[in-house]
Amino acid sequence: MTSTEESRRKYDALADRYEDIFFYVADVGRRLVEYATPPPGARLLDVGAGRGAVARAALARGCAVTAVDSSAGMVSRLAEDYPEMLVRQQDAGALGFTDGAFDVVTSGFVVQVLTSPQDALAEFRRVLAPGGVVAISLERQEIGRLRWLHELNKEFFGGGGGSPMTADELDALLLSAGFTSPTRVTVDIPKPLADPAALWDWMAEQGVADAVNALPTERAVAFREGFFRGAEEMHRDGGISITFGATLHRAVAP
C-alpha cells in the first residue's frame, strides 16, 4: 500500500477545511500546473487531488482532467464541486487506468507522505504516454525563525518519524523510475500572522491543540507557557510570519 488508513481518515476529517488550514496549496497548485505547461486539451491526471488545487488550475488551462484521491471524503466533495472532472477514489500505487492513458500526471504534496513512493512513480510512468510529463510538488523543510517552536516540539513530543524526503532524493527516485530530464524550481509563500494567539489558532487547526491536550496536565500547561513565551518574543522581534517552502519537480516519460 502507498497510503495508510490513518492518513485517509485524517484527510476525510479535513476535507471541508483543507485549503483554509493549508494556505499554500492553491498557490502552489497553480504554479505546479504552470511548470508542467500542458497545452489545452491535454489529458491530465492529478493524483492525490485533495480539494482540487492542482486539478482546477488544470481545468482553467483547458485540460481534460481526471482526479484521484485515496480519501473518500475528498473524492465526494471534489466530484460535487467539479462535475466536469472525472473523479475516482484510487491509491497512488495502484492506478486503475490503461498504459499511456495521459499526457500529464501531476501530484501535489503526495509523494512525500507515501510509504512506497517508488510504487507511485512507477504507476505515474506507466499511465503516461511517451513524451508525457510528470510534475510533482514537494514540501521543503526549513526551520528559520521558528527554531524555538521546533525545539519546543522536540522537548515535548520527541524527534518525529524520521527525515523528510529531500529534493535530491525525489529527483533520484524519478530517474530510477525511468523518467528523464528532471528539473526543479523553488517556491516560497509567506503567511503573516497578527499575534501569538493567531499562530496558536492556526496550529490548533492542524491538530497541535489535540496533541497538547493529550499530555499530562502539568506538561500541557508547560507546553502552552513555552509556546506563548516563544511566540511573544518572535512577535516583538520582527513579527510572526510562517514561510512555506516547496520545490516543483518536472520530468519526462521516454
Automatic annotation (TrEMBL):
* Gene Ontology biological-process annotations: methylation
Which UniProt key words apply to this protein? Methyltransferase, Transferase
One of the entry's Gene Ontology molecular-function terms is:
S-adenosylmethionine-dependent methyltransferase activity
Q: Sorted alphabetically, which InterPro entries does this protein's record hold?
A: Methyltransf_11, SAM-dependent_MTases_sf
Q: In this protein, which residues make up the domain named Methyltransferase type? A: 45-136
Q: Per the record's keyword annotation, is Methyltransferase included, yes or no?
A: yes
**Name used for this protein in its record:** Methyltransferase family protein
* Species of origin: Actinophytocola oryzae
